[in-house]
Design goal:
heterodimer, A: alpha+beta, Alpha-Beta Plaits, 2 domains, four-stranded mixed sheet, three-stranded antiparallel sheet, 9 helices, B: about 325 residues, mainly alpha, 10 helices
Chain lengths: ~250, ~325
């Protein structure tokens, strides 16, 4: 049963006045050219619904082939978190990728300006021709996302598949995800799927205390680690599925 | 964070760069205070040792970090030039510029001391004096910036402490003084001009080295204390040296052998002069031993800090 909203309520009336005056003000102040050009820049982000992740590693594999990531290195991977004692056990999956932070620690320390946050879409990128491989950013990233590419000698990491998103495609990991656990999109567009799902769900980011403001969000992520095990006496095992056997 | 991205080259750079910057700063400040007008062969002489050792140590150290660059390792030999095509607020960017400037200035400063008969008032004296004024702030800057560089990252709780830079500065100054004493003890005896004056300067150097190490002990205490009183990532990181894998290296190697033992030995020789104005006599072997201990301690400090910072990271996920 839908409640009928009265056409001329006091609230509607006030809102109409407010919008009307706002429009008049903008129209009179802003030059027409500026008003047309003021298109909002994109703000790419990702939302990973870990409830839909089955830990199949399709994203890790597609990332490696798509970006020709050298052997032994990983731009994206899936961690398994196992905990509990039989019969009360649980295993959850935590897909990891560069958080494309709002305040990227790596950008702040780069001495050559080789790594920067793109103004047009907020993706943190590395210019291979400028990077000297000093590894300062590898130290500064609180998520251990960066590695030194042994072929180019420059720092390397996930860039949301820049060559794909620049051409209107989604990143390879999103494209390949079997459980459709990953949603990629523009956080500045309220009509995008990611904005809607973000608004409707409880989400978390990784290591928020680092002050980096990640743009990769998780639904139902398990933030358990070995230290929790030490405190609660619970059995916890984290498998990283990458060369670095311990989570970084 | 368990992989060592920065290894021995960076450790050696931090040690040699600190030593060179410290020696340069000490040399220039000694020269400015009493090296110019004094008897030839007095303070001027050890300002000379510092001036000569500074560029050598810093250049060797800087060569080391180039070896650690990913671009250098993959055959892009001169890509590091990119550092000097820009300047930004990254501690490494500012530090590189300062380092380059220090190398240039210290080379010219060393050149003014180079002739065997260099003495106060010779024709290079004015240049020497101007450069000494530049050497002091530049040397302090080079010694400081490495600590700031490491301390700038919340992702490395072991390094992320404001006192790390001060620790590096004090350690740089004390290793710089130790390098000067060592060179003087090994090569300075040959052509000393005035034996009394030589010993008086030895006393001044040893006692200032002692003072610096004493200050370093205090800074180390503050560094460990701060970390110990914190919870979370910092406490977890500092456990590497309070019970973790680097405990014995830190407490026995650095604190006992690198700081306390040299201080005790120097106290033994400095106290009679300090309290009773007795003639300062310190055997050459003891001088050499103290210097070697201080230098080893300085190296061990860089080693422990660089390794400990990288084998620890933020807690939780």
């Amino acid at each position: 049963m839908r409640e009928k909203i009265p056409q001329n309520s006091r609230r509607n009336f006030l809102m109409k006045i407010a919008t009307g005056s706002a429009v008049t003000v903008t129209a009179s102040v802003a030059a027409p050219g500026i008003a047309l050009a003021a298109e909002k820049p994109k703000h790419y982000g990702m939302l990973i619904d870990t409830r839909r992740c089955i830990g199949c590693h399709a994203c890790s594999v597609s990332c490696k082939t798509e970006n020709e990531v050298p052997l032994g290195e990983t731009r994206s991977w899936v961690e398994y978190i196992e905990k509990g004692r039989f019969p009360n056990v649980h295993r959850s999956f935590l897909p990891r990728l560069c958080n494309q932070c709002e305040k990227p620690a790596c950008v702040k320390v780069c001495p050559t300006g080789a790594t920067y946050k793109r103004k047009e879409d907020g993706v943190v990128v590395i210019d291979n021709d400028v990077c000297i491989g000093c590894k300062y950013c590898l130290q500064a990233c609180p998520y251990g996302m960066r590695f030194l590419n042994p072929i180019t000698g420059a720092a390397d990491k996930c860039d949301f598949c820049l060559h794909r998103i620049d051409n209107g495609l989604v990143p390879a990991c999103v494209n390949t995800c079997q459980g459709r656990a990953r949603i990629f999109g523009d956080l500045n567009d309220p009509e995008s799927e990611i904005s809607k799902v973000l608004a409707n769900n409880a989400t978390t980011v990784l290591r928020p205390e680092m002050g980096t403001f990640p743009n990769v969000f998780y639904i139902d992520a398990d933030h358990t680690d070995e230290r929790d095990a030490a405190r609660t006496g619970e059995y916890v095992r984290v498998e990283t599925h990458r060369r670095q056997l311990k989570r970084v | 964070m368990l992989e060592l991205h920065w290894g021995l080259p960076v450790i050696l750079y931090l040690f040699l760069g600190g030593l060179g910057a410290g020696a340069g700063t000490v040399s220039a400040s000694i020269f400015l205070r009493s090296g110019g007008g004094d008897l030839a062969g007095s303070n001027f002489r050890f300002a000379r040792w510092g001036a000569l050792v500074a560029p050598i140590a810093v250049i060797v150290g800087t060569g080391m970090i180039v070896l650690e660059l990913g671009s250098f390792q993959t055959g892009h030999w001169f890509k590091w030039i990119n550092l000097f095509k820009t300047i930004n607020l990254s501690p490494m960017s500012i530090g590189s510029w300062m380092l380059a400037l220090f190398i240039l200035v210290s080379l010219v400063y060393a050149y003014t001391f180079l002739p065997d008969d260099a003495h106060p008032g010779d024709h290079r004296h004015r240049l020497r004096k101007v450069l000494a004024w530049v050497m002091v702030p530049l040397g302090v800057g080079v010694a400081l910036y490495t600590g700031i560089l490491l301390g700038a990252m919340p992702s490395r709780p072991f390094w992320n402490s404001p006192i790390l830079a001060l620790l590096f500065l004090v350690s740089a100054l004390s290793t710089g003084v130790a390098a000067i004493i060592l060179l003087r003890a090994l090569f300075g005896h040959k052509n000393k001009i005035d034996a009394d004056n030589f010993e008086r300067n030895s006393y001044m150097l040893s006692s200032s080295d002692m003072l610096l190490i004493g200050f370093e002990v205090l800074v180390v205490f503050l560094f460990v204390m701060y970390a110990h009183l914190t919870i979370g990532g910092v406490e977890d990181a500092v456990s590497v040296i309070t019970g973790g894998p680097l405990t014995s290296q830190f407490w026995f190697g650095f604190v006992v052998l690198g700081l306390l033992l040299p201080v005790v030995i120097e106290l033994k020789y400095v106290f009679p002069t300090l309290l009773y104005q007795k003639q300062f006599v310190m055997p050459r072997t003891m001088e050499v031993l103290v210097c070697l201990l201080v230098l080893a301690g300085g190296f061990l400090l860089r080693y422990i800090v660089v390794i400990a910072g990288q084998i620890t990271g933020p807690v939780g996920i």
